[in-house]
């Protein structure tokens, strides 16, 4: 099969995260951000990561809300590493409106958002561990931006491609994005051939063998 042209992060828009995961498995790359879910059904995003690292505020100190939104380039996905904290939030409705105005593609939070109803009304794609009403002011603070961050054992670097849908959130390392995209196209074509054979009455086991379905699986050392 000839190699597909890779047009950049936009190429992953609309591709199911399950297919991307299968492609990354063939390179031995995890990429999944466990536990993060869409704030509402049907949300999806794909774009380069703009990373933010948060940390707790020491007892007795104060800290204002993180100021970063004005610096995020258009077309990027905000990735906030808040250490899985769910006792306070780092995103709300005002940031959502600012992000939409700036043309951002969505936000991914290892933690919680608030103003869930207002965010849902905007249709802005947001993925997090959940929602909670407590502000992050004086509880957590922005420690660094555009640095590698770790979310559920997966390292996310600035510029890595983030994709998300109802099945979850996955990160494609930028240095393998082109190869991953080509593998995704191979997998999509393979699954289309299997579906066609199923519709023509072929048993699943036979169709999978015929089209080498298990070739596209996690690479393991044996």
UniProtKB/TrEMBL annotation:
EC assignment: 4.1.1.112, 4.1.3.17
InterPro entries in alphabetical order: RraA/RraA-like, RraA/RraA-like_sf
Entry similarity comment: Belongs to the class II aldolase/RraA-like family.
Protein name: Putative 4-hydroxy-4-methyl-2-oxoglutarate aldolase
Catalytic activity: 4-hydroxy-4-methyl-2-oxoglutarate = 2 pyruvate; oxaloacetate + H(+) = pyruvate + CO2
GO BP annotations listed: methylation
One Pfam short name: RraA-like
PANTHER family to which the protein is assigned, alphabetical: 4-HYDROXY-4-METHYL-2-OXOGLUTARATE ALDOLASE 3-RELATED (PTHR33254)
Protein function: Catalyzes the aldol cleavage of 4-hydroxy-4-methyl-2-oxoglutarate (HMG) into 2 molecules of pyruvate. Also contains a secondary oxaloacetate (OAA) decarboxylase activity due to the common pyruvate enolate transition state formed following C-C bond cleavage in the retro-aldol and decarboxylation reactions.
Record note on quaternary structure: Homotrimer.
Keyword set, alphabetical order: Methyltransferase, Transferase
Cofactor(s) listed: a divalent metal cation
Record-level Gene Ontology MF annotations: methyltransferase activity
Lineage of the organism: Bacteria, Bacillati, Bacillota, Bacilli, Bacillales
């Amino acid at each position: 099969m000839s190699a597909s042209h890779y047009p950049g992060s936009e190429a992953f828009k609309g591709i199911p995260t399950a297919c991307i995961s299968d492609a990354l498995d063939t390179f031995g790359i995890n990429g999944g951000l466990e536990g993060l879910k869409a704030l509402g059904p049907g949300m999806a995003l794909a774009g380069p990561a703009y990373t933010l690292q948060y940390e707790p505020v020491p007892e007795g100190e104060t800290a204002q809300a993180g100021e970063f939104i004005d610096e995020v380039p258009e077309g990027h996905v905000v990735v906030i590493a808040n250490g899985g904290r769910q006792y306070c939030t780092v995103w709300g409705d005002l940031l959502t409106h600012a992000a939409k105005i700036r043309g951002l593609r969505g936000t991914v939070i290892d933690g919680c958002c608030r103003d869930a109803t207002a965010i849902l009304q905007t249709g802005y794609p947001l993925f997090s561990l959940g929602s909670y009403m407590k502000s992050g002011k004086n509880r957590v603070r922005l420690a660094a931006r555009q640095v590698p961050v770790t979310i559920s054992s997966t390292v996310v670097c600035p510029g890595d491609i983030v994709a998300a849908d109802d099945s979850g959130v996955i990160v494609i390392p930028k240095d393998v994005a082109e190869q991953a995209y080509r593998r995704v196209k191979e997998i999509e074509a393979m699954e289309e051939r299997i579906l066609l054979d199923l519709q023509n009455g072929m048993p699943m086991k036979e169709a999978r063998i015929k089209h080498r379905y298990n070739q596209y699986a996690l690479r393991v050392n044996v």
